[in-house]
Amino acid sequence: MKKRVLSAMGGLALLAVVLAFFDTILVNILAAWVCLLSLYEIFKAAELLRFRMLAAVCGIYCVLILFLNTSAIAISFSYLSYLLVVMLFLMLLRSHSTLKVEQMAYSFLISILLAVSFYCLILLKEKTGPQMGVFYLLMIFGSAWWSDSGAYFVGTFFGKHKLCPQVSPKKTVEGLVGGVITATLCNVLVALAFQTFCNWIVPWGYIRNGVTVNLAAVALVTPFASLLGVLGDLSASIIKRQCGIKDFGNLMPGHGGAMDRFDSVLFISPLFYFIFNICPLISAI
Length: 285
What we know:
Blueprint: H1 2-20, H2 26-45, H3 52-66, H4 73-94, H5 101-128, H6 130-158, E1 162-164, E2 168-172, H7 173-201, E3 211-213, H8 215-243, H9 258-266, H10 269-278, E4 282-284
Antiparallel strand pairs: 1-2, 3-4
Helix pairs in contact: 2-3, 2-5, 3-4, 3-5, 4-5, 5-6, 5-10, 6-7, 6-8, 7-8, 8-9
């Protein structure tokens, strides 16, 4: 418990630094670092690091995606993904005796997932501006981390019915419900606090406009985001179980590696980008 709390405090301190410099390229650099670290951990788990060229190509692909010009993302993403497929098949042709189709497909799937998920965070910042981007960042990470915390405590004290015992033995149905409720309540409170802060202290740094948050929409979207976070967590658990490992790494004591901490976020960020395009959760006054 102590290690989890200390690691969580370290993560919050890092998040505070990101928020302070959210209008700079530091966000892209940090996203690229976490993305590469996650890719390294998940390749290591599947014993794919011995294919150095494969790991390098997938890593370069992820980094390039995160620094694309947002105005040309559709074309650039298509071209880069096509080149990735070509490179993967060339490597399969060269190393077909040791590199299997399943391993190549796994590499492609993980690369696409990491690149798209982290780039959705960048897109939200670029398309809404740093002020609104911070709000969506808080909602995305809140949907994952509030849910995880709520599920942990509710499951510990009230959990009786196993959710997926063969995949994640400690997860319970009660924890799932508690996590969804916790994430929804906390996201609404954070959204309300963000709205109050922006309307009280304008202007300050990149906080330049008063805002109106659609609290009802936040309360409606968060449960779906929380469930997607659980899906991401369980998906990562399946990979770890099939690879015979407990954690992807030891970057954060008590929490595991980067992939252990961000697996639930990977499925959530694209959802909020989709929501932003059809029904923005926040608007300037």
